[in-house]
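pasting Capsule polysaccharide biosynthesis protein for the record, 360 residues
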Amino acid sequence: MTGDIFRPFRLGQRWESATWKNVRWLDGIAGTAARLAGWDVATVSWDPALRRSHGNVDMPAIYDALGLPLDRAGWVELLRRPMLPDAIERELLDLFDADLVVGYEIPDHLLRILSRAGIAVVDVILHPVRFLDDVVFALRTNRADIHALLAQHAVAREAIALQAGLIRSKAAWMRPPLPLRPGAALVLGQVGDDRAAIDTATGRNRSLADHAGRLLELCADSSMVLFKPHPYDPAQSDTGITLRRLQAVQWTNANFYHLIAQPEIDVVCALNSSGLVEAEYFGKAALWLAPPLYRFGDTAPADGGFGDALPQDGAWCNPAFWSAVRGAGPAAVLAAVRPNRLRRALNADWGFSSIDKVVA
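structre below
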C-alpha cells in the first residue's frame, strides 16, 4: 500500500508527508480486505512513525539527492522533471518488492517506475461525484485482467443521474438559497496549492486570475454570476482578489448541491473542480478553464500504460475483490454495503450531509 510519497506538507517549522494519512487510510480499508483474502500486505510511505510491515521512504534524502528544497516549490519542480535519476528509481523500486502495488493517487513518476518494472498496479482515486449514498472511488490499473474486474464493478452513469434527480426533487421543497434570475452562472473556487491546480508545463499554480477575461465574458453572457469560494483558499489569494474586482459577481457560501439543483443556474465554471463533473449530472453546462487532473472512463490499459479510472461500487473494500485480483476463489463478502461507510472513514463529506438531511 502506498500513495503520493513525494508530496510535502508544512507543519510548523518543518516539512512532513502530506499523504501519510491517506496511506494509513488505504491500508485500513483495502489492506485489511487484501489480508483477509490471503495477500501478504505491507506499506511503503514517508511515515517514520510506522514500524511493522512498513518501508519508510527517506524523502528528505531523496530531495537532497535531487538538489531540491524540501518544500512546495521543490515538489512542483520534481513533478515537472520527465525522469528521476537511475539511482533514485532503483532505490524506490527496491522498496516495492511486490507482485501488486495498491496506492492512493500515485504520482506519475512512481506509476512509470512500477509499470516499467512489470509490477501490477491499482491506483485508487477519489471520484469527482460526491453526492451518492457514499463517496465513490475510481480505480485504474496497468493490467488488462484487473481492468476487466474493475469494469464489472463500475458505477453506472444512470445511477448517478438518478441520485442527482432525487436531490433536485428535494430542493424543490426547500427555500431557495438566495434570489436567482434565469440564466445565472456559478463560478467555483479551488485551493491554490492543490495538485490539480499545478501547471506542470510552467511550474505555476493555475488560478481564476489567469482567466479574468473569460470571467468578464461570462458576466456579460449571464443574467447574474455567483462565486462560491473554496473554504480553504485564503481571502487574499489571486483568485479572491480577481473576483472582488469583478463587481458584477455575487459571492455566496450556500451549499453547492442546493445551488446546482436550482433551475435558474445554467452554467457552472471552474478551473478543473470536481464540481464541474457533478454539475453536468444536474443538467448544467460545465465550463472548464483547465484540463482535468485524471481521466475517467472505461478505456482499457495498453502498451504498458494505464487505463481510465473507473468509478467503483463498494466491492474493492471486501476480500472477495482482492481474491479475484490474485486469481483465487471468491472469498465471503464480510462488510455489507451501507450508506456513508467510506464517508465516515474518510472523515469528510464536501457539504453532502447538509443536503442529505431528512428535512433540510
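Residues 160-288 form a domain with the Rossmann fold fold (CATH 3.40.50).
The chain has 14 helices and 16 strands.
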